[in-house]
Amino acid sequence: MKKNPAEGRMEGRAAERAGPFSSLLMILFIFLLLPSCMEVPPPPPEIPPTVEKVPPLLPVDWAEVEGWNEPSQDFLVSFQVFRDSCRVLKGRPRWRAVCAKVAEREPESREEARRFFETHFLPHQVRNEDGSTEGLMTGYYAPDLAGRRHATSTFRYPLYRPPADLLTIDLGEFRDDLKNQHLRGRVAGKKVIPYWERADIDGPQKPLQGQELFWLEDPVELFFLHIQGSGRILLENGEKVMVGFAEQNGHPYRSIGKLLIDSGEMKREQMSMQNIRAWARRNPDKTFKLLGENPRYIFFAELPAAFQTPPGSLGIPLTPRVSLAVDRSVIPLGAPVMVSTRSPGHGKPLKKLMLAHDTGSAIKGPVRGDFFWGMGDEAGRLAGRMKEKCHFWVLLPRE
Predict the structure, then answer these.
(1) pLDDT score recorded for residue 273
(2) How would you class 222 by CB atoms within 10 Å of its CB: exposed for 0-12, middle for 13-18, buried for 19 or more?
(3) Residues 290, 175: one domain?
(4) 229 and 96 in a common domain
(5) What angle do the packed helices 219-228 and 284-292 form, to 10 degrees?
(6) Cβ atoms 135, 365 nearer than 8 A
(7) DSSP 8-state symbol, 211
(8) Which of 36, 210, 271, 310 is 20 to 30 Å apart from 94, CA to CA?
(9) Closest CA to 256 of 246, 271, 235
(10) Which parts of the chain register pLDDT below 70?
(11) How do residues 348-395 score in pLDDT, each as one tens digit?
């Protein structure tokens, strides 16, 4: 039916009146609905600034190598020790050419030996990841310890060979991302469990009885032999037998020196191997418990008679005051390393060309070294007091 014009005008006016009101209602409805149906996005996460790692070895000029041109440098000794290193290095491609040159030369002076290194090597300053060049130098040695092959009432503390029940599990055999990682343990029933800790091995149950290699008379000196990883046993018939690291029980190392400091038994500035020995003499009733706080245990092997100093990781006998332990992931074993540090005690500058002959579980990082002081008590005194700042320059073959 057709609407009359009046009705149409009335509907139009009603629509005009309702239009703004309807729009307002719609806006209000949407506004009330928004909090329940919209999620406010979280703020973007803070992105830490990117820190670029610098290459650890920076080529430099010889003039930038501290101490290189000092007349006191005995490059002749360093040349002779490097020649000894070439017994191993000559079979490695990187060193083959320079070791062939060493075999052809017999320098007659320090200056001639210095020119050899300058001719066949390029110096590289060793840097930390942040670009700094300062690091830490500690010292180590090999003790001379009286011992016996059979226990007596005096010599009653055992030095063990690797036990037959010690398992070494290469995790890389199971997963590629675990390559070069190992576990050590023992079988108990159908399970592999962690190996005995130090307190267990030295405790009354004596789980390694029958695995003794030698017997010593001082448990503290035996403990320090474990820390050094090698030493010389002096037998009653005058025989001297080198023993070296063969295995370990797989537990982490814990510093008894730090425990003495934390417990208030000793001040940080007093800490040294000598003062730990003195503390043990004053506190024999506490000594066994203290030593047992370090769960790591080292097992040894008797070395051939040709070794009268320990063999380093390179496989040749270490040379006192020339051999250096380094992080081999940065500094290749066998490389000459110019060291700038200070002597322990009096703090005089110590700058000399050493050889990277060894490694160590605590020697990690580019500018980190362990100075081999030699054999016996005097070497031990120096090693125990050495904790000095240092800088390194590694010499790499030009080829």
Answers:
(1) 82
(2) buried
(3) yes
(4) no
(5) 30
(6) yes
(7) -
(8) 310
(9) 271
(10) 1-52
(11) 999 999 999 999 878 999 999 999 999 998 999 999 889 999 999 999
Rounded to whole angstroms, the maximal C-alpha distance in the chain is: 138
Collapsed DSSP state (helix, strand, coil) of residue 52: coil
Whether residue 319 sits in one domain with residue 296: no
Within 8 A by CB and 6+ apart from 331, the residues are 126, 337, 356, 366, 392, 394
Question: CATH number for the domain including 102?
Answer: 2.40.40.10
Q: How many structural domains comprise the chain?
A: 2
Question: DSSP secondary-structure letter at 180?
Answer: T
- 66 lies in the same domain as 123: yes
Q: Residue 216: what are its φ and ψ, rounded to 5°? A: -115, 170
Environment class of 46 (CB within 10 Å of its CB; exposed 0-12, middle 13-18, buried 19+): exposed
Are 175 and 119 within one domain? no
Q: Which pLDDT does position 46 carry in this prediction?
A: 62
Which domain, by its residues, includes 164? 158-302
- Residue 131 identity: G
**Distance of alpha carbon 332 from alpha carbon 396, whole angstroms:** 9
Q: Are 346 and 371 in contact (CB under 8 A)?
A: no
| Whether 168 and 267 share a structural domain | yes
CB atoms within 10 A of CB 230: 25
pLDDT of res. 160: 98
**pLDDT given for residue 255 in this prediction:** 93
* Torsion (CA) 162, 334, 359, 300 in degrees, nearest 10: 20
CA nearest to 243, candidates 219, 214, 216: 214
Q: What pLDDT sits at residue 27? A: 43
DSSP per residue over 61-124, as a string? -GGGSTTTT-TT--HHHHHHHHHHHHHHHTTSHHHHHHHHHHHH----SHHHHHHHHHHHEEEE
